[in-house]
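README: folding subset

This subset contains proteins for which both the sequence and a predicted structure token string are available. Records are stored as plain text. Below is the entry for Selenoprotein H (121 residues), shown exactly as it appears on disk.
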Amino acid sequence: MAPRGRKRKAEAAVVAVAEKREKLTNGGEGMEEATVVIEHCTSRVYGRNAAALSQALRLEAPELPVKVNPTKPRRGSFEVTLLRPDGSSAELWTGIKKGPPRKLKFPEPQEVVEELKKYLS
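--- output ---
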């Protein structure tokens, strides 16, 4: 019987997230304004929550573009990130390590809007 592979450590996942953010910021070179990126798994429940959240963000800050899944999302992910024009990023919400139950993965839209206001002021 062949040996089974090891499960990925949490550190490897953190490195993968950092690399992904770096790709997003490098891919967005020449950005002149901040952008909000919502990454969510493609299941229906995640999509509904992302739509409600993006609508709340657009109402609160209409001048900020909101991108939903600009790259292929990770399985079970729900993250909201603010990409700044200088290339840095700020995580407004991550639901990756939250749950069960699944509803803990999704933020209240007002929570994310409050975090966004902190970073914009």
